Amino acid sequence: MFETFNFDKLKEECGVVGVYRNKNIEVAKMVYYGLHSLQHRGQESAGIATTDGLHTHFHKDMGLVQDIFKDGIFEEKLKGHIGIGHVRYSTTGESYVANAQPLVVKYRRGSIGLAHNGNLVNAALLRERLEDDGIVFQTTIDSEVIVNLIARFSNEGMVYAIERTMELIRGAYALVVLTEDQLIGVRDPHGLRPLCLGKMEDGYVLASESCALDVLGAEFVRDIEPGEIVTINEEGYQIKKIEKQVKKASCIFEYIYFARPDSIIDGVGVYQARMNAGRILAKEHPADVDMVIAVPDTSIPAAIGYAEASGIPFGEGFIKNRYIGRTFIQPDQSLREAAVRLKLNPLKQNIEGKRIVMIDDSIVRGTTSKKIVNSLKKAGAKEVHVRISSPPVSHSCYYGIDTPDRNQLIGAVKTVEQIRKLIEADSLGYISLEGLIASVGLDNDSFCHACFSGSYPIDVSSMQGNVITSSKVFERL
Ligand SMILES: O=P(O)(O)OC[C@H]1O[C@H](OP(=O)(O)OP(=O)(O)O)[C@H](O)[C@@H]1O
Ligand SMILES: NC(=O)CC[C@H](N)C(=O)O
Ligand SMILES: [Mg+2]
Asked: Which residues line ligand 2 (CB under 6 A)?
């Protein structure tokens, strides 16, 4: 019997990109390259929507960016000088093509395209209210509620419509919105998900991460601040901040794991933050060993930082297969171990007989650590000490990261010592939350670290089973 062995990344989110260029300059290929550079943020589906000022075109499908957009599609289908794109990792709604983004809807004034990174915590409730009003939905994603509300409030222009929508939606959202004549970017009032603006000679780029600006040759202008709406059109760009101010709470996991290390988010280089975390980890949890290794690729900067601060040499302990797909068919039980080693194979010649400290960025379910500690020991490591550059993940995320239910989070149900035993490490140490925050170097109070602390910046009780049944804001719909 054939069995599907799943190599899904364990937690991701989505990536968005938007490009505005002078009339008559095609943008679809730029959006494509931008999406390519954000592929790490979502690998389930991808899409591009463009407008030539009159008509809106789109193409989306399941799979990776490079497999979805084949030659010819840009010239034949995706015409226009304004475009948006999305790579998806589903958080609300199934992973099938109808739920792929961007969403493109037609309304009385034309078309709206929308790409969303994040997750709403009151989407179900809003959707119910809209359905009671006779609205029909084409998808099962939270993002469709947003596009629906924008269309509904569009009488007095897009910025007004977005402001009204922002009064109703709760949760995390970095949006790029496309109309026939403008590109709009929006970051939620807490700034949970990132979004930045870049400038080219003949236009502008909006992207989840600055690495996309680099790839497109755009010069970084600024991060979109929490609660800002940036409108890009023939006149350049204009920024409006919503009146109601709330505490900034940007996702600290971007620095730990999601973002590419060459990105700079809210003024902080991701590579530098990871290296700092490694340095702090070395001080908080030293290890008497011969070599520091990383679990490639995410934890490499943290491992380098650990090595630097401890004076222990950094070495390669695993070789990662860079060509591995999301899933593959595992022929039979006897190949199960081969399947595990296919992604990360210990570099036996480098680790045999050594005492190792292995740095990883996070432990979520504990499956990765358990497998690889064991494989290092089998490959001849004398001791394997594990150090983690984030605190135990002990609470679910409802803001766009697909962490599992709390009872599947090993950090929620076991002590550090129990986890150490389970993964069969000789010792285990996690960076403290204070150490992690210090590694990023921004104001203490400006992060969402709910996955470690359980302190949620936006009420999530409706997502935890206690459904809220009424709220005043809906009376305004
Ligand atoms: O405790 P777990 O549930 O196993 O999750 C933790 C692991 O998941 C992530 O890696 P992942 O394999 O998702 O992707 P990566 O190759 O980018 O590190 C993360 O970097 C940890 O290694
Ligand atoms: N990970 C995300 O940002 C997902 C965006 C949106 N909630 C969706 O499921 O499509
Ligand atoms: Mg990993």
From this structure: 13-14, 88-93, 101, 116-119, 141-143, 400
